[in-house]
Amino acid sequence: MHPPNVWQAMSRPGFLLSAWPWRSLGYLLTGVVAGAVTLVGTVTLAAVGGALAVVLVGLPLLLLLVLSGIAVARLERLRLRLMDPEPAPDPHRAPAATGLWAWLTTRLKEQATWRELGYALLFAGLLWPVDALVVTGALLFPAAMVATPLLMATVGDGEEAKVLKQWTVAGWPTAFGVAVLGLLLLVTGLYAVGVAAGARAGLTRLLITSRDREVDARVVELSRSRLRLVDAFEAERRRIERDLHDGAQQRLVALTMTLGLARLDAPPGPLADQLAKAHDEAGRALAELRELIHGIHPKVLTDYGLTEAVADAADRSAVPVDVDLSVPGRLDQAVEAAAYFVVCEALANIARHSGAGRAEVRGAHARGRLLLEIRDDGHGGADATAGTGLTGLADRVSVLDGTLTLSSPAGGPTLLRVEIPCEVRELSGARRVG
């Protein structure tokens, strides 16, 4: 939860006793000072740079004038912290290279630079005088009225006082009445200062910050969180696979061997028949467990990578599969897992639904992308949204900034294409399966 801003503070009791009136006043007063300095600097750079531009000496000054909006906007983002604890994001992007020239060309091409220049000119010409007018009208005039009795006692010799050098007050009752009125106006003025400062801060945030940049930052964070979830999911799959492989499977292997030995030692009869039946059931359970472990996360994928894992999946397919896959090494675990399970799901769909006599898996890693194509000679008409399991895999591929497309006209052929951006992590053990 973000700390409250000035608008939220004004809607609650105790605003006048909080720090917000002082923060609002400080925001406006620093705006007056910063605006006056900006006006002097802008006029000086424009005048001197324009006068010397004919001899090219003034061109750097004019360039400095264009870039001055960046400094003004940076100062304004700092001043905004007085009114809104939520930081104002910097709309500028980092240069692609290091050095002054790369920074300069990047800034001159950005819309944010020119928007900040426009804000600096508006700040210098209009906004800071408005800040000064608000402070004067809301606080200085009421403060002068509150000081009327003091003026009468010191300057007016106890007879009269001139308020704001315009209004003559005679007599102590009138002087104290004016002071009370000034006190009421001063309280009202503090609220007016809060309103003006809040509106001024809102306008500044609108002009010098980019909502697109905020949205982009949140999209990046969302993408990163999705990748972290995928990594955590893959790590959990590998943990389950290891636990089943090293735990339950080993115990089931031991049980199968024990039943087999007992079956050999038992004399013919009902006991031998029961042992034979138990031995066969244990063997089937072991085979199903191995298939389950392989479906959770195949060990061949962990140990040898995508190329060997796809070749293994093709060997176990009910439909003959030709494999032509060239990957020069190991990829990120999430990429390998997503690509492998897409291939497995596609081959399972081909065996169940396509009526194909043959399938083909082709793929390669090129230009920083993994490309996979799974094709069959079946009757076509496949639909990724019809509960084939490819929808979830498409979502999984999209998390990795990849794409999954399906082409399956009636009568065939069916082509499933996967493209995932990735880099090769290591080259050891790479080979081509064809």
Structure, described:
The protein is an alpha+beta fold and 434 residues long. Helices cover 65% and strands 10% of the residues. The longest helix has 55 residues, at 211-265. 26% of the residues are buried. The model has no long low-confidence stretch (mean pLDDT 79).
Structural features:
3 domains; two-stranded antiparallel ribbon; 8 strands; six-stranded mixed beta sheet; 434 residues; Heat Shock Protein 90
Beta fraction: 5-15%
| Terminal-residue CA separation | 57 Å
Q: Residue share in helices? A: 55-70%
Q: Please count the beta strands (DSSP E, at least 2 residues each).
A: 8
A few lines on this structure:
With 434 residues, this protein is α+β, with helices and mostly antiparallel strands. The protein has 13 helices and eight strands.
Secondary-structure map with pairings?
Blueprint (H helix, E strand, L loop, with lengths): L5 H5 L9 H33 L6 H21 L20 H10 L1 H36 L1 H7 L5 E4 L3 E4 L1 H37 L2 H55 L4 H27 L2 H6 L1 H11 L4 E6 L6 H22 L4 E8 L2 E8 L13 H10 L3 E5 L6 E8 L10 E2 L1
Parallel strand pairs: 3-4
Antiparallel strand pairs: 1-2, 3-8, 4-5, 5-7, 6-7
